[in-house]
Write a structure and sequence with these properties.
Elements: E1 5-19, E2 36-39, E3 43-49, E4 58-68, H1 79-89, E5 95-98, E6 103-108, H2 112-121, E7 125-127
Helix pairs in contact: 1-2
Length: 131
């Protein structure tokens, strides 16, 4: 795997689980930063900047967003495996998602320093917020 460039995004994120069919306020899309809404047969997951997450459902606050600089070609393989493997070896759990152009991972704010260190030790270039 080639060296990836990863940006640590400023601010906290919340991951919320809603019951399948629950309404999602369209205002969430006006939030600054990444917003992701994923629906499955059993649930809806919403990733949004803190303060813009749905009020209903089960919320997991306190996440930090790390974004791989893209755009990334669809033919690339092993991107998430490389990041996840490095973080797992350091004991850092993650929440992963992809958009058309790139990949994103969320790690708990409390272990952000450990996550950044693990990614750098694996040879990736990690930039702090506003860098």
């Amino acid at each position: 795997m080639k060296r990836l460039v990863v940006d640590v995004v400023d601010g906290l994120y919340t991951i919320t689980r809603l019951d399948r069919g629950a309404p999602v306020d369209p205002a969430v899309f006006a939030a600054p930063g990444l917003v992701s809404i994923t629906s499955s047969v059993t649930e809806i997951s919403v990733v949004a900047p803190a303060g813009h997450a749905p009020d209903a459902g089960r919320a997991e606050p306190g996440w930090r967003l790390l974004t791989v600089r893209g755009p990334l070609e669809f033919s690339l393989t092993g991107i998430m495996a490389s990041l996840a493997g490095s973080l797992a070896a350091a004991g850092v759990s993650l929440f992963a998602l992809s958009t058309f152009d790139t990949d994103h991972i969320l790690v708990r704010d409390a272990v952000l320093d450990r996550a950044v260190r693990a990614l750098r030790e694996a040879g990736h270039e990690v930039h702090p917020p506003n860098d």
